[in-house]
Amino acid sequence: MLAIRSDQEIQDFARGCTFMGTGGGGDPRDGIAWLKAARDEGKEIAWVNHTEIQDDVWTVCPFLMGSIAPLTEETKKKMQRLGLTKDAYKSIQAESVRLLEEYMDVKVGAIVAIELGGSNTPGAVAAASRLGIPAVDGDYTGRAIPEIPQTTPYLNDLPLWPISSVDKYGNLAVIKESTGYEMAERIGKFIAAASFGLAGQAGFLFKGSDMKRVVIPGTLTKCLEIGRSIRESREAGRDPVKEIIKELDGWLLFEGEVSKKEWEDKEGYYWGTHTITGLDDFKEAEFKIWFKNENHVSWLNGKPYVTSPDMLIVVNRETGEPLANFDIVEGQHVAVIGLRAVEQFRSPKGIDILGPRHFGYEIDYTPIETLVKQ
């Protein structure tokens, strides 16, 4: 078991989760707040190796569903009219697990994070601590993703539903059945959109034997190590960007200034494009990244470049601090780091659900290691 207790450990963990969130995965400030609140109430923040979970134990995956787009003043006024003003729960993820337990008449014995991201992963770990059960050192994606089918259970034909849903204002719902993953995603997204933000939802109710078959192991510990490495490099006066690229066997794809940001809140997702004008070794060049919550397609000087399922990670050029897409603003100096996807998502089925053509771009997926050599 690995436990984290200090503010620094919590911040390192959230930083690493944000890095692996590829621009999405929620707000790390929320993730940090949830973990600190649980710890300050005497809860243990910890995770265990997936092999420690017994085969007959029920496991479940709590996650956040909805848009991370900023709220407009008009939306805030509408929320006031609908009575969406007061938080009802300390953890909507934990409450979604309790609702699913009640609906299915089972007792959950372990929590698995759906993805890696600044709030979704800490939220799952905090939920486990509040429920008094272990979190598993692993997740179902190895990065952050906008759509539930972009997970290893989908790749292995395991069921997603039933899904419980709890928003922070106290509205509860259960998706009993669905015609498929994409429809379950659509229903869940519309439920979350009704309260103009995020809902805590729980699904992927599996026995431990199935969880072990599809989990990507060791990713929570990896996030903690990434967050710690960025901080320690910075404190030691080393270049945190170069250090983390070397540590993760990644690539520096671009450096420059964010010269343009375009975004919209569309269909419950945060869509947009960042344009980065090159500096230093990339002077006179231009890099564009298209995101749907997370970063998925890039262009170098107008030509298609690195795409999902491989990872596009934007960080502050000086500090190495990873940037969620809603925190990126024009004028920032950033670096773009590329990492290989986990191998499950480089399969034909993985590319079909997470590659550029899935997002509507007539671009064939080319592995990042091939592109950077060119």
Structural shape = globular
The topology string of helices and strands comes to EHHEEHHEHEHEEHEHEHHEEEEEEEHH
Count of extended strands:
16
Note the gap between the termini: 43 Å
Mean of all residue-level pLDDT scores: 94
Helix content: 25-40%
C-alpha-based Rg, rounded: 20 Å
Name the quaternary structure. single chain
Please state roughly what percent of the residues sit in beta strands, choosing from under 5%, 5-15%, 15-25%, 25-35%, 35-45% or over 45%. Answer: 25-35%
Low-confidence stretches: none
The SS-based structural class is alpha+beta
Give a quick account of the main beta sheet: strands, pairing sense, barrel closure. Answer: 9 strands, mixed
Per DSSP, the total helix count is: 12
Jot down its keywords.
374 residues; nine-stranded mixed sheet; globular
Short description:
With 374 residues, the chain is α+β, with helices and mostly antiparallel strands.
What does this structure look like?
Helices cover 33% and strands 28% of the residues. The strands form two sheets. Strands 1, 2, 3, 4, 5, 6, 7, 8 and 9 form a nine-stranded mixed sheet that branches. A seven-stranded antiparallel sheet has the order 14-13-12-11-10-16-15. Helix 1 (7-20) runs antiparallel to helix 2 (28-40), helix 1 (7-20) packs across helix 9 (219-235) and helix 2 runs parallel beside helix 5. It has helices at 7-20, 28-40, 73-81, 92-104, 120-131, 152-155, 181-194, 208-214, 219-235, 240-248, 348-354, 368-373; strands spanning 2-3, 46-48, 58-66, 108-113, 135-139, 163-167, 172-175, 198-207, 216-217, 251-266, 269-278, 286-292, 294-300, 303-307, 311-316, 333-339. The mean pLDDT is 94. The longest helix has 17 residues, at 219-235. With 374 residues, the protein is α+β, with helices and mostly antiparallel strands. The chain is built from twelve helices and 16 strands. Helix 5 (120-131) links the parallel strand 4 (108-113) and strand 5 (135-139).
